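Below: protein 1.
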Amino acid sequence: MNVPSPASFGWQSDPETDVWMPHWTDQSLVRKALEELTRCSFKTDCSSNRKCSCSNAKRKCSASCRCSCGI
């Protein structure tokens, strides 16, 4: 049976102890990924709309947004 390496699932082997430990990600990487997933669904310009999820997250609309102000 071919068992996949734990390294493929976010674990690192400590070279001194040969023990597998979880590899914790940097919060800035997670924040950036979440920003890419945030998008609004307005069909018009939402720059002045307080219900815009992008505006509420204090960021500009992106190409993944459905609004007309997306890049």
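Below: protein 2.
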Amino acid sequence: MPPRTAVANEWHGRDKSLTPNSEKDFSVHTVIIRHGERVDNVWADWRSAYVDHPVDDCPLSKRGRYQAERIAQELFLFKPKAVFSSPYQRCLSTMAPAARRKSWEIKIEPGLGEVLDEHNYPPQYLIPHSIFRYYKDVPFDFDYNPVAKFFSLPAEPNLFRSERRIKRVINELMIEYGLTGMIYMAHRFTCNLIVSMYTGESVTFEPGTMAFLKCVNNKWIVDYLVQS
């Protein structure tokens, strides 16, 4: 991993009034996004209505789809060097509106996925071919070789195992793509860990939360948060 800037212990410089639709230099940011609201958060019996759903991969709720559109608006002026997403449908569907509008190619990275505990193992997401067919109007980087391979991840009986997997993936992505200009679309635990790796801080990631990170005076900080 290349030398990383010093850990930020304070949130200096964050201006909550500024969003990506303001006049700012977005090339200096990296954005961490938690997916929108899941349908099973508001409808416990969703499976009975999704009879053609091949795996137990919960989609977005109506509010989650609205949050995805809001996130696309917030990212309108952003020009990322790379866009990474967990393969779960709730993440891909949250990233899809922005990717469509801006023609961003999403790099699907299984290493950004859920904690693989007894409730989530084996991982329930579509294989790449099915993902590309399901999201046929969304641009993907078909040549991207993920750090963590599909369906090769072991079970994670404790959070230490999950943390080790996510840190390994993020470290390798930092080496390959750098620290700035990234978009990471993931889950609550993953998002919190990425922010902590950059800044040493903790952020409460409700569904649809966006954290814009920035390096100021050799310290990575949370520049501002957006709740969609």
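The radius of gyration is 17 Å.
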